[in-house]
Amino acid sequence: MTQSISVEIADQLKTAFDFFNAELFGGSLSECILTVQREKQTMGYFSPFRWSNTNGKIAHELALNPAYFAGHPLLEVFQTLVHEQCHLWQQEFGKPSRTCYHNREWAAKMVSIGLIPTDTGLPGGKQTGQKISDYADPGGLFETACIKLVQHGFFISWIDRRVAETHSTQ
């Protein structure tokens, strides 16, 4: 029996989440609900305490935008996932700031795992604020983990066709 496509993509995202949790966070992050959401101009987001089940258990949500799976290198998808995992880490072990704000504690965690936060997307940018992207520290923990995951055959098998077609005609 073949696996459903919904389960296939969910398993791939969980595999990446679990891998980076082990490699970069020592397995300390709690399980969260991984979703794919098409939010304009957002590669992903973390939403604390977003879900609950009928027994009252609470779970965080970590969302990735599937529109970026086709048009961006896998490294950038990984960057988004780990960026959001740092928000999860801060929620569980630190002092999160207001919604959508990236504070010094969060930035320090990013740097410690080899992702450099920046408001410009380039070296030398401001590391805190509302709109913060990041880049991989060459040879750092994050980049090393990414190489290891890809060498083990990881890929995302489902992508947005419309985005893929748009990028192939440019």
Can you walk me through this structure?
The structure is a single chain. By secondary structure, this protein is an alpha+beta fold. It is 44% helix and 16% strand. The chain has 6 helices and 5 strands. Helix 1 packs across helix 3, helix 1 packs across helix 5 and helix 3 packs across helix 4. It starts with a helix and ends with a helix.
Provide a quick synopsis of the model.
The chain contains six helices and five strands.
Write the SSE topology.
Layout: H1 5-25, E1 33-36, E2 44-52, E3 58-64, H2 67-71, H3 74-93, H4 104-112, E4 115-118, E5 133-136, H5 141-151, H6 161-168
Parallel strand pairs: 1-3
Antiparallel strand pairs: 2-3, 4-5
Helix pairs in contact: 1-3, 1-5, 3-4
Shape: globular
H/E series: HEEEHHHEEHH
Total number of helical segments?
6
Which blocks of ≥5 consecutive residues have pLDDT under 50? none
Q: Biggest sheet, open or closed, and with what strands and sense?
A: 3 strands, mixed
Give the overall pLDDT as a whole number.
Answer: 92
**Strand-pairing-aware structural class:** alpha+beta
Estimate the strand proportion.
15-25%
Strand order of the largest sheet: 1-3-2
Report helical residue fraction: 40-55%
Separation of the first and last Cα atoms: 39 Å
What's the alpha carbon Rg, rounded to whole Å?
Answer: 16 Å
